[in-house]
Amino acid sequence: MIFSSFEFLIFFAAVLALRAGLRDLEREKRFLLVASWLFYMSWGPRFVLLIVFTSLVDWWIGRRLGETEDAWARGRLLVTSLALNLGVLAFFKYTNFVVENGWLALRALGWELDPVMVDVLLPVGISFFTFQSMSYTIDVYRRVIPPCRSAVDLCLFVAFFPQLVAGPIVRAKDLLPQLQRRTRATPAEFELGLLLFGIGAFKKLVISDQIAPHVDLAFARPADFGAPYLLQGLVGYAIQIYCDFSGYSDMAIGVARMMGYEFKENFRMPYAAAGFADFWHRWHISLSTWLRDYLYIPLGGDRKGEARMYANLMITMLLGGLWHGARWNFVIWGAIHGAALCGERFLRARGTLPRSGAAGRRLSWAATMGVVLFGWVFFRSPSLGAAITFLHGLLGGHPGGAWVASPQILAATGLMAVAIAYGRDSMEAAPRLMAAAPAVRLAVYTGLLTALASFGVTYAAPFIYFQF
Amino acid sequence: MALSSWRRLLGTGAAVLVLSAGLSHLVAAALGVAYASVGRLSVQPDRRGPPIAVLGSSLTLYGLDHEALATALGRPVTALFVPSGSPAELETLQAEVAAASTTVVGVSIYDMNELVLADRRPELVPLGRAMADLWETGADWPFAKRVLGQYVLHATARAFPTAGKSDLVMVGIRRVARDLAGRRSSVRSVAAPPLDGAVAPPAVAFDPRAVPDRERTLEEWPLEERLRSVANYRASGREQHAFRGPKSLALRRLASATAARGEVVVVVFPVSLTYAREFLDAAATARLEQELDSLARAVPAVAVLRLDRDPALRSDRAFRDLVHLGSDGRRRATEALAALLLGR
Q1: What pLDDT was estimated at residue A421?
Q2: Any CB–CB contact under 8 A between A97 and chain B?
Q3: Residue A461: what are its φ and ψ, rounded to 5°?
Q4: What is the pLDDT of residues B324-341, one digit of tens each?
């Protein structure tokens, strides 16, 4: 049940209508919890047990953390929670990868064995809900938040359907307090939520899904194409993944806002970034801040010397890459971004980066986009070999390769350029639009709906980040 | 205060809906956005034998030379075509040709793929029938959702005629842009062969994003066009194949109903070599064989013409695109069908 489907619209309308009739907060939370589990079960019923199990264990651990002051006992409880969440994540997400690479390693060592492969199914959204659940116990351990008294509250925090499947990764300190009161959207909040949902749907259905076939073609058969088409496909993919994922985030934030809940922004026009640190302040913000707060800083951050800081950055980005999936391509993607961040810090520390001025900013932007695009080749390619073939073609290695212009990608590139020049992402643009004159609002809303009805691809393609 | 704000929001919402619906109608009219209609073709030869009905999708439309068939047999031919259609839609339409003593039903592994849904399906297959067939075949929820979603979209399209037709909108924009630039569109709807004067010719558009020029065979397509066409099929989910669903049930019912009033020939059209290489595997073809076996068991009176087994029709030279026969292929297919009917 993806946000852009009729099925979800019916589900959401039913949730809103039934919730409006509930007068008791506890009942309302139980209702939202059941609705969220049903939402998750539409992807496959059995894995809901996994969410229930990890949530309940983390709730229990949180309670115990609140009851004891003994540092050793608290440490053990935290380790138990981390082991559980990371264990679940590792089993479902990385077993196939480890087994496959294990057999390859054995073969490389000269052991000729009949490989026994396993095929562990990946529960949708596992990377998101385990990170969310884990952050709760870490925050309770650090005494950032008090333990959650109600199991329903914690289960709802982990499973709340707007953010369950592909984020944004919401922090307990942000959502749990909102669950303590009966929340209803004001007309203005509802309008904002609806507008964000519409903008997200536009990004997904009108841009991302329209250009997807052309991008897929470039990445499916890179050897058949010359540099112009591959470049077009690569730029198309950069736009596709941004519109797909930020579109999903906008819709998730909009759905929550229509119910009266507030999520933080997840994207802030990342392709306007002039620098790699800047890029990561704008791209998948809920993950990058999660990695900063729960991995980079605990590793020592930049407090333990320059060499250690570079190592910490690399570890964080490598694990961030691996978080996306069990493939070497993601590790390489993480390494590219890690190296870029380290390089930027190194140059900045020595004052060799262009500081200010339009020219310096443009140079930084161009360098950032170049590396970001280079990284997307690995992120999107199905294998390392395919990525190398793609890069080889991109550098002119397929001179006789096919080439055909994709009007969809060219149009999307034009739109993206306008958006970059405008410089504001949905969360910033939507409130400004709502403050505009009524005629302007009406015109923009009408245009948005007409565009959705005319260009929206109805073949419901899943969001890219569902696979992570 | 809050109540009036809600009212204002509802008012804005209603105004947006009305204005957008109006704009959608304008866009549809300006760009000529509409699904290809059901094609009706009637050929009356000089000699008058018992009438023949031909039912099928665009594969049958382009797969047979209906005039040559009528002339060879000396019998009038009435043909009905549903773009991307299958027995599910033809079952409803066959009542129009109830007077025919011979019914030819064109199918293929592409037509019978349950995952390929005709745009006109919600108009031709009653919702009750669709639900009953989904239930009887034990369809899984994702597939049932796709089928039933077509009915929701069909209802939505009354207010927003462009809804669900983004491909056609894009084709329309490109056509208008090229017209404005004074150039002939290379991506255009392909008109069906001349039809009976009383009936408006259907604007048959198979794959609006990748329809080749008419005279070219698939073998002559430039590599990038072939790759794009394959990508378009893949993007719309047509690369997977599923059988034993509502289309199978409808084929059996259609064959059984038409067999009750005369002879029935099911013509199994081939698909191109490129299509087979890209999308078919042994399991898909085996499932089609099971499908045809169960048809033969359910309706023994049916004659099956296996054009898909004709080696001459396996080459891309016989095709105008991934699934539609070109002129050489059409000639061979027509001769084979005429020979079968003359021999019976």
Answers
A1: 87
A2: no
A3: -80, 135
A4: 998 889 999 999 999 988
Q: Which domain holds residue B197?
A: 36-342
| Predicted pLDDT at A11 | 93
Domain with residue B249: its CATH number is 3.40.50.1110
Contact A404 B153 (CB under 8 A): no
Query: What is the C-alpha separation between A112 and A90, in angstroms, rounded?
Result: 27
pLDDT number for residue A316:
93
Question: Is A271 within 8 Å of A424 (Cβ atoms)?
Answer: no
Asked if the structure places residue B26 within a domain, the reply is: no
d(CA B65, CA B71): 10
- Would you state the pLDDT for residue A355? 62
- pLDDT band for position B202 (cuts 50, 70, 90): very low
Chain B hits for A190, CB-CB cut-off 8 Å, are 9
Q: Are strands B39-43 and B303-306 parallel, antiparallel or unpaired?
A: unpaired
Name the B residues in 213-242 with CB < 8 Å from any A CB.
Answer: 222-225, 227-228, 230-232, 234-237
Nearest-CA distance B255 → chain A (Å): 31
> What is the total count of domains within chain B?
1
Q: What is the DSSP letter of B303?
A: E
- Evaluate the CA torsion angle A448, A452, A453, A454 in order and state its sign: positive
In one letter, which amino acid is A153?
A: D
Contacts of A184 in chain B (CB under 8 A): none
| B49-94 pLDDT per residue, tens | 788 999 999 899 889 988 888 888 888 888 888 888 888 899 888 8
Round to whole Å and give the CA distance between B190 and B50. Answer: 31
Domain assignment present for B126 = yes
Examine residue B112 and state whether it is found in any structural domain, yes or no.
yes
What is the distance of C-alpha B259 from the center of its chain? Answer: 23
Residues contacting residue B167 through CB under 8 Å, at least 6 positions apart: B208, B209
- Candidates A144, A157, A126, A139; CA nearest to A29 is A157
Which tokens belong to A148? 């959650």
> What are the boundaries of each domain within chain A?
6-183, 188-462
ipTM of the complex: 0.80
Contact A239, A412 (CB under 8 A): yes
